[in-house]
Hints:
Keywords: Lipoprotein. It contains eight helices and 18 strands.
Amino acid sequence: MTDNRLRWAVPVGIVTTVAAVVGFSQIAGATDAPDLPKRTASQLLVDLQNARLDALSGTVVQRADLGLPAIAANGSDFTSLVSGNHTLKVWYAGPDKVRLALLGTLGESDVIRNGSDVWVWSSKEHRSTHTVLSADQDKAGQGPLDPRNLPKTPQEAADRLLASIDPSTVVTTASNVTVAGRSAYDLILAPRDRDSLVGSVHVAVDGERHVPLRVQVFAKNSASAAFEVGFQQVSFDRPGAENFAFTPPPGTEKSEAPDAPGPDAVPPAVDAAKPVLKGTGWTTVVVAQAGQAPKEAAGILGQLPKVSGDWGSGRLLSAKLFSVLLTDDGRLIAGAVAPQRLYEAAR
């Protein structure tokens, strides 16, 4: 299924200018369920698998209400996507021509891919970085990715979710919805394991083209989405080539990114230190060395309350959809589960 979905999955982390931030209510669309031919959940999964996306452009609204502590972040920096409402603009004309844009009150951040050239630009920092992807990197799907790694388009979010469907997932449908003025089916994925903090995931599947228009993640026993990414406006016409051309503005500090290692250049020592997965499905817990975690995550966790037990001691981040434990002996343990599951893994 994954190989087929890559034909329509918009690549992560590629960018240009954005509209002003809009309210969450503007994502939802009409309240009356539109008429569409009847489709079962199984049929919709096949539709998503076989859907083909050649081109699109539009405005994406992302909302994150994860219950995280306040984080000082530039609203125009991709690190700000961990909380609040954001508007992004996306242009897609194939996997090698993609542009995504985030605009905040303090400036603009862009990532643009045009062939083998990838540009990352920050108007606030007056800085741009240029990377030329090698054939191996391009084939392996490598290149600059947002370190926060949150989905920035409905396609990306749905791609991750569909890749993880297994017997631990219940797949159903609900009433049809309207997203970005288009009629869509509402496909629901939910964990069978009641210990998961995730209640359900709703994927709005376009009734004509069968690509995802919106993805919403609900915490258990919550009526509002903790995370949502969806189109506010979308067109499936091919964007012009000018949308993927980029020249750093005057006064920009320019740099060339060093060549990244090829897909086979991973040292054995790194391979041996891979995170360990405990459990299965929606309640899988990841155990890693804290040194493998992003620097920003370790900094946030270091400010959190202390916790302790027969497993040891550390600091705990408890959010709506996940929990993270940083132990004093240098382990980072995380999952979409309550803290007790993390303590068991630490023990």
